[in-house]
């Protein structure tokens, strides 16, 4: 079994099921053929599907992908065994992971079925990326046996199940990383973690306290990495052009960026360094004699060349708040925090940095992961010491999930009901930053009421604070705008009003079974009518939900099989909500060097939802402690 990750091949397909880019790695493929020769059972015909000894062509991959979409209902597939599942398909295995790790079936010259597995599927934008890692032929045969099993699901104690099989394949994780990186390059999403610093130095003492108490705080600005800036921006521009152009293929610049990345990151099919910043920096700057480290020090892979210049260390704790606010006695509100410690260490040589992470216990951390450069002792007291050898540029030193140590930054309720067929009355009553003290400050806050199934004609109402704007399918309430943040005080905001919609045009909606049953015919019609139509169940269902809506009752007029809600967006500066913190004075560098240390925090909203108190809402049952 391969002890590391090696990639046999990868393909990029458009939403028109056309292969626009592919790359095969002959060195890895030679290892696969040698493994097949060693495994004599590969030549036995005791399985419905046989191990493919070589890779199919691009056209065969495209045809097999189309066949799978028709068989499984969509590019992702069902993931569980249903009535439409057939023996030998991914959904027959009855495991949701088959929506992300798929198989494709082709035929050889003798019309025998050949299976290609495991194919890691990553969908980014309008592209599907397929990555085929190297595994042993025996693993592939095990999977084909699962596809023939009469029972379904992963039974406890079963001889063969998918999850334990995948756990024994480290190449799967590497293939996912390759797929995600390729997707980011295609769409131009290659960005570094954000590092925030103050635009003006802090005066400290009484002046900072006074300015914070009256709501004036120093504005923050992000710090971008200077290395490989032109290359990254070029990739971003390329991705933007690709997204605006007709979705029929990759532009030449995209292909060049992918080829360049592959030749540097995984030249012979084995990923060496998937950090796009490192690869771009090496390509631009190259190497010199000054980049050779001292003989008694080992240069890590994440630092391909040494930094030269003014030395400093920047830390930013970035937290994202996810919340579901119900304002109901029978349903408790829920809120969770996902955070990360971003770092940028501009230090010469190969130093080690150590600091105590404050608040690890009080933050009630559920999940914790670290960058490979970090050395983490066993979790102990309140101050967890962390040592790391920093790489180049901005990087995520640590990720965590925690409970919110404070009350919700926005609390209150949202009510909406219909007073007629085309008019609804709503009411917001919110309190912002209640219980929050300086230096915590809210930079902006916006509430959005989406109406995806109704066209807004007008609204009537005046909020107690802020401004309101209307779009075709939403009403947006800007409570606090950037530059007019609040700090050291709470704000109460109310917004009563009515909203009028265009007359309802109900149409008959075919059942989902009819959609699935006639999928093959509809796909062929779609291809003849327009090249921009999606050819999978999920997109067709969404299209029908938008165009062929059923007549609905006045109690639920906004969404088809959905719920009514408002979404809150905000940013908080000056501290974390979990209690995690870093003391710049406690940061130590070995060997000792004078380098200023800056620390900042920012909190942003994720899915911060206010569910309509008068409507339906989803809720998950949580076990009692």
UniProtKB/TrEMBL annotation:
<dbReference type="GO" id="GO:0015031">
    <property type="term" value="P:protein transport"/>
</dbReference>
<feature type="domain" description="MHD">
    <location>
        <begin position="310"/>
        <end position="573"/>
    </location>
</feature>
<keyword id="KW-0653">Protein transport</keyword>
<dbReference type="GO" id="GO:0005764">
    <property type="term" value="C:lysosome"/>
</dbReference>
<dbReference type="InterPro" id="IPR039591">
    <property type="entry name" value="AP5M1"/>
</dbReference>
<dbReference type="GO" id="GO:0005829">
    <property type="term" value="C:cytosol"/>
</dbReference>
<dbReference type="GO" id="GO:0016197">
    <property type="term" value="P:endosomal transport"/>
</dbReference>
<dbReference type="GO" id="GO:0005770">
    <property type="term" value="C:late endosome"/>
</dbReference>
<comment type="similarity">
    <text>Belongs to the adaptor complexes medium subunit family.</text>
</comment>
<dbReference type="GO" id="GO:0030119">
    <property type="term" value="C:AP-type membrane coat adaptor complex"/>
</dbReference>
<dbReference type="InterPro" id="IPR028565">
    <property type="entry name" value="MHD"/>
</dbReference>
<dbReference type="InterPro" id="IPR036168">
    <property type="entry name" value="AP2_Mu_C_sf"/>
</dbReference>
<protein>
    <recommendedName>
        <fullName>MHD domain-containing protein</fullName>
    </recommendedName>
</protein>
<keyword id="KW-0472">Membrane</keyword>
<dbReference type="Pfam" id="PF00928">
    <property type="entry name" value="Adap_comp_sub"/>
</dbReference>
<keyword id="KW-0813">Transport</keyword>
